[in-house]
Amino acid sequence: MEFDFTWLLWSLPLAFALGWLASRFDLRQWRFESRQAPKAYFRGLNHLLNEQQDQAIDAFIEAVQNDPDTSELHFALGNLFRRRGDYDRAVRVHEHLLSRADLSPKDRQRAQHALAQDFLKAGLLDRAEAALVKLDGTPFEAEARLARLAIYERTREWNKAAEVAELLEHAQRGSFRLRLAHYRCEQATALRQHNRTTEALTLLETLVADAPESARGWIGLAELRHSLSNTEGAWEALRQLCLHVPSHVPLVAHNLAIWAKLLQRTAQARELLHSWSARHAPSLDVTQALAHLEADPTAGRQLYIEHLRREPSLVAASLWLAGEHWGQGEEEKLVKQSLDRACDPLKRYRCAACGFEARQYFWQCPGCQSWDSYPPRRVEEL
């Protein structure tokens, strides 16, 4: 049977026509999808500008479904989830990005950083730490180390905090000398709590030798020496503080006066504090310490008058009036109680970063967690 070439002639144009129709259909579909993705993307962007996060998330989800290979849409969606507090979904988006084999190294590092931020915001500090460690050697290294430093401070892992602070110091990402000194002081406190006093003493002595500008180091060393009945060494530590960190003398003036009396060094302490007062603004703590050193109560009260001549102070006036007897017993008591109550807020310390006030002095603010944000002066003196 001979082959009929007529069918071949008919089939070739038919195949061409079907192929052309199929290509047109695919092209239309591609054009439709490519139009849909930008529309969803720009709709989401418009919702973002209008601070409509929920609608923006819906629009970006639609955009991602239309174009699942676009990493930028995934980053935008993950960031939106995190900002809304939907940390589980943010983690899933960024983990999905990290699982992709076609992701560029730059985007992989960016996704790792975003994942670490998700864990930080969610309060999953152990997982955040593990994610941040993986950012060593990347452009996010400095930021990741600062975040790890904050984690170690929150969890009070002072050894790890000191290691990271030293890395940042060596990388010239700022000065961390005083921050390191605080960590060493915290380590010394922990050693004392575990009855490892000798190690704590060695640590503090090394600290003040390496960082004499650390007021906390000198104060911690003085207190530790005093607890070991080494009042001579404690007084010497405070004297060194007066030389190296004079701004913090008001914090130690009281102990300086008490220990000077025990060691019969009243004249030396008085000279030290008077010299400090002549070079600095009046300090209530220093004035009180000088009054305590005076053998004659009248001479001590006169110091408050001299303080008032230099700077008006309700607290100083109240301290002067405390030694006066000028009225009926009950009336005098009521007036002095009222003055004490009015002076109480003025005796507090105030954080310069957030304004948190406290009766005691803090090296790290309980409110904003800033280090060295408390001026060593009372509220009335600021």
Automatic annotation (TrEMBL):
UniProt keyword Cell membrane present: yes
Keyword Secreted: no
GO cellular component, one term: cytoplasmic side of plasma membrane
InterPro entries associated with the record: CellSynth/LPSAsmb/PSIAsmb, LapB, Rubredoxin_2, TPR-like_helical_dom_sf, TPR_rpt
Organism: Tepidicella xavieri
Location in or out of the cell: Cell inner membrane
Pfam families, alphabetized: TPR_16, TPR_7, Zn_ribbon_LapB
Role played: Modulates cellular lipopolysaccharide (LPS) levels by regulating LpxC, which is involved in lipid A biosynthesis. May act by modulating the proteolytic activity of FtsH towards LpxC. May also coordinate assembly of proteins involved in LPS synthesis at the plasma membrane.
Cytoplasmic side: 24-382
NCBIfam families, sorted: PRK11788.1-3
TM annotation in the entry: none
Gene that this sequence comes from: lapB
A GO term for molecular function: iron ion binding
One BP term from GO: lipopolysaccharide metabolic process
Swiss-Prot/TrEMBL keywords: Cell inner membrane, Cell membrane, Iron, Membrane, Metal-binding, Repeat, TPR repeat, Transmembrane, Transmembrane helix
Protein name, as recorded: Lipopolysaccharide assembly protein B
Similarity comment: Belongs to the LapB family.
UniProt domain LapB rubredoxin metal binding: residue ranges: 349-373
HAMAP family named among the record's database cross-references: LPS_assembly_LapB (MF_00994)
